[in-house]
Each structure stands twice: as C-alpha cells, then as structure tokens.
Amino acid sequence: MSQVALIGAGVAGLLCARDLNRLGIACTVFEKSRGLGGRLARRQHAWGELDIGAPFLTVQTPPPEWGQLEEQGLLVARRFSACRWQDGAVQTLPDQQHYLVAPSNNGLCHYLAEGLDIRRACRVASVEGGKLIDEHQQFLGDFAGVVLAAPAPQSQALLPAASSLNIDCHWQPGWTLLLQFDAPLDLPDIVEFVGHPLFQRLVHLSSLPGRDHRACYSLQLLPAACEALQGKVLEATLLPCLEALGQLVHLPVLLHCDRQRWQLVSGQRMQMPDAARIDEKQRIVLAGDWCSGGGVEGAWHSAGLAVAQLSQWQSACH
C-alpha cells in the first residue's frame, strides 16, 4: 500500500517519487493527462517527434546526478547560436549552453518514471487529511503524506480550506506554434524577442542533437498574444504570426504546422522559503519549478526538499 501520494507527473513529481521509492517509501503518482512530463511533453507527427514544451533544459548549476546522466548518454550538453530582436534590430548574442535528451526531452521523465506506480488520466479533485478523491467522486486512497507537484493554480485549488499553505501567483496561457519549412531559416538557433507584440522566443528544434526532423521550429507566443488569439482556429492564429516572422527573415515554404495551447505556463517563478512549502498538520508539501526559482533546476531543488520532509514524517511514524 502506498504511503505517499504525488499529484503531477512532471519532473518534480517523478523525481520525488523515484527518490522516495529508493528510500523504501511506497508512492503513487496521479497524473491528469495520459502522458508524462508536464512542460517536457512531446508530440508525434508524421513530420517528426517534436518537443511541444521546453525545447531544452537550462541550468546554472547542474544537479550532482547530471554528471552520471551525461556518462550514461541520457543528457547531452550543447552550445547554440543565439540573437536578440529588439526595437526592430537583431543583435548577435554569445552562444548559449543547454542540456538535451534525445530523441526528445520527455525521455528524462520516462527515465525517472521507470518502476513507479503511476495512475494516468486520473484527475484528483480533493485532498483532505491525506484522503484523495477524484473528479468522479471516487475514493483514491488515504495517504500519510501528499506532494502537490502540479502547476501553482492547480495546486492552490487542491489545498484544503484548513491548510496553512498559500500560493499567491497569477498564471496566464502560453502557446507554442510548431512549424516545419522546406528549408532552415537564415537565423541563429535561438532568437529571443524583447518588446515584440507577439513573440517571446523562436528555437530551431531540428538543430538539437538526436532529432528525427528537419527545419522544424517552435515559436513561443506572449501571454497577451495568446489571450488575443483565444477561440481562433489554427489558420487565423498562424497568419499574423507568419506575417510578423516574415518581416524578420525570408520564409521558405511552410510544409506543416501545429500549435500547443498551454493554459498554465506563463506564471511567476517564486523562490518560496522552505517552511512556506510545508503544511505539517495536513502533511502536504509543495514541489515544482514554480516555487523554487523556475526551470528544471528549481524542480530538482524542490523535489529534494519534499523528499527530505516526507522521509522525516515517515521516520517519526515508526
């Protein structure tokens, strides 16, 4: 029988579950989607397997485990050419180093998930005193500890009324257009946009090692642009974006396109104090990049705190 429930099968949730299992603490991971990985999700197209979330993993200080993952060939560090668009001008930037997983970054989540008890397509609707209820009012179990590793608004919605935890943040939608041209664009691998009315970042996905596609790009839109384009069909979203992109660079023939509409992506990245992520009475711990500075580095750090706290609770019960 599981002792700990983890809600959310992104990097933080899976890492928590794996490390707790290694300590002999049985866990069950509940994930509302059919797939794993959260914002490291992937999508299979006839034109390639594409990273529809984060195109790469960026860290300032790699977690200690990452050296071993590089030796195993799971993680690869690469440098990419970059530029910045600002006020209609393009400025060359120093090359950027990022980590990747081949053939997609979602492979990191499948590595972490190996051997775990994961209940997919299971949406938790209520957490109260360790008791979990799903959206169909079915009882999921009574747990000695709960890790909320979903995005901040979803975690906030699951907090019991009696919880001491408070998640104060505002998230907005974040869309990504996936584009394949018949030839690569005459641009660096990464284009960062500052002050653009539509765009945040353009990444040449096919420049990443181990990818099975050619001339594919992810174009990340600003939250305000996503809200303005709400309810529009793909073609109506695509037209203004291609017109704006065509003002920056000559566009080859567009072969394929798709979009990923993340509803809870562009939020605040908080650095919450450790004590502010723990509810002793309700036995709830918050985990996720959003509460620990952002990025995969934040997810790793928050998972470490959750594992230490749950291990302490389990030791006190014996």
Key traits:
alpha/beta, 318 residues, Polyamine Oxidase, Chain A, domain 2, globular, FAD/NAD(P)-binding domain
Largest sheet: 7 strands, mixed
CATH class of the largest domain: Alpha Beta
Strand content: 25-35%
- Computed structural class: alpha/beta
Helicity level, as a percent range? Answer: 10-25%
Rg over CA atoms: 20 Å
CATH topology of the largest domain: FAD/NAD(P)-binding domain
How many DSSP H or I helices? 7
Total beta-strand segments? 18
Question: What separation lies between the terminal Cα atoms?
Answer: 16 Å
What topology, given as strand order, has the largest sheet? 6-5-13-14-15-12-16
Give me the CATH superfamily of the largest domain.
Answer: FAD/NAD(P)-binding domain
- The count of domains is 2
Which regions contain 5 or more consecutive residues with pLDDT less than 50? none
Apparent shape: globular
Overall CATH architecture of the largest domain = 3-Layer(bba) Sandwich
**H/E element sequence:** EHEEEHEEHEEEEEHEEEEHHEEEH
State mean pLDDT (0 to 100 scale).
92
